[in-house]
Amino acid sequence: MNHLFHTVRIDLGSRSYPIYIGAGLLAQPATFDAILPNGPLVIVTNQTVAPLYLGPLQGALGHRSCTVCVLPDGERYKTQATLGQVYDALAAAKMSRDGAVIALGGGVIGDIAGFAAATWARGIDVLQVPTTLLAQVDSSVGGKTAVNHPAGKNLIGAFHQPVAVMADLSTLSTLPERELKAGLAEVIKYGLIHDAPFLEWLEESLPLLLVRDPDALAYAVRRSCEIKAEIVSLDEREVGPRALLNFGHTFGHAIEAAAGYGTWLHGEAVATGMLLAAQMSAKLGFISTHEVDRLRDLLTRAGLPIEAPRMGIARALELMALDKKVLAGRVRLVLLKKIGSAMVSADYDPAVLHAVLQQAVG
Ligand code: NAD
Ligand code: GLY
């Protein structure tokens, strides 16, 4: 591995693993060789990513034969039925505990393939090869895997850490612009909740990120992974600080559901959700309205939406109540204590939440 590649480690005892970040990783067979077990390999990908990156990945696997499972593309296929297709491929490959699943794609593929690996033979290795910005900075890291149930997103899932993450930055060159911007929302999230200087860097470097400057993207992915690694290493199963990674997500999930899944991209809903969470933080006196304006400006410059659909307060509260952070019937929200620092709170005046929702969705 040369100096153009960075490695971020997630420290989780026996479940620790490296996140390799760099342009051209798919052309580094030695890295794959060192990580993968000797048994059967099944690559899980989709109809959009396969024509672009299946060939290079198979090249990186060299002489090794593998079964390929190509799924339809889209969040609407993140279902038990699609998961069944992955299990069928694993059965056809005679997958055993000395084999591995390789997830090649965005967060949808990573989550489905990761869950299949978590459950097949009570758990086999999974290598995450994320190809969207959102997957490289967030979903491929940290071991959350899931498929959706009609009752809600990601309801059928498990924590299952990968053996490694290979974030090849070159794959971002083909990513649709809207997907790139959605990924930037999660990058901005890391600055807001954990690293004020990183947020300043993002404000300055946004024009470079939007034109996919390789150095700017490399730093954004690396710093995001470092922050996620630090938080997940402290709290793998989200009993404490990991919940901070859900900043903007409680409002965001309500937006995604109200608009109809697939209408808003996850990152877009998170962007608007972060603005609502920041407004709530300002109304509670933690941050200033100037800082809310600063966030609105950054999201606007990043081409992200800042206005929630007018779903009405009752519907918003109903959808927010489905959040996995609900404890004893109370919606816990991630709020900013200041820029670069966040907290989880159920101890807020409901009238403040009402006021924020009245303005945004009422
Ligand atoms: P996605 O997987 O749907 O990918 C977005 C689109 O980009 C798809 O059409 C995909 O085929 C296409 N694509 C992927 N890579 C490409 C490339 N290099 N070039 C061209 N097109 C490419 O969406 P996403 O934003 O990556 O992930 C969203 C999913 O991730 C959601 O299901 C969400 O629930 C999940 N998620 C999981 C976690 C976690 O911790 N596990 C965290 C955040 C989000
Ligand atoms: N995306 C939030 C988490 O991984 O915890």
Overview of this protein structure:
- The chain has 362 residues and is an alpha/beta fold.
- Helix content is 46%, strand content 18%.
- It contains 13 helices and eleven strands.
- The strands form three sheets. Strands 1-2-9-6-5-3-4 form a seven-stranded mixed β-sheet, with helices on both faces. Strands 7-8 form a two-stranded antiparallel sheet.
- The chain starts with 5 loop residues before the first strand and ends with a helix.
- Residues 46, 48-49, 52, 73, 75, 78, 105-109, 111, 131-132, 134-135, 138-139, 142, 144, 153-154, 171, 174-175, 179, 182, 266 line the site of nicotinamide-adenine-dinucleotide (NAD).
- Sheet with most strands: strand arrangement: 1-2-9-6-5-3-4
Beta strands, count: 11
Low-confidence stretches: none
CATH architecture field of the largest domain: Up-down Bundle
Helix content: 40-55%
Biggest sheet character: 7 strands, mixed
CATH structural class of the largest domain: Mainly Alpha
Q: How would you name the CATH homologous superfamily of the largest domain?
A: Dehydroquinate synthase-like - alpha domain
Shape: globular
Radius of gyration: 20 Å
Structural class: alpha/beta
| Series of H and E elements | EEHEHEHEHEHEEEHHHHHHHEEH
| Average pLDDT reading | 95
Oligomer: single chain
- What is the straight-line distance between the termini? 54 Å
> How many structural domains does the protein architecture include?
2
The share of residues in extended strands comes to: 15-25%
**How is the CATH topology of the largest domain named?**
Dehydroquinate synthase-like, alpha domain
Bound molecules: nicotinamide-adenine-dinucleotide, glycine
SS summary, helix count: 13
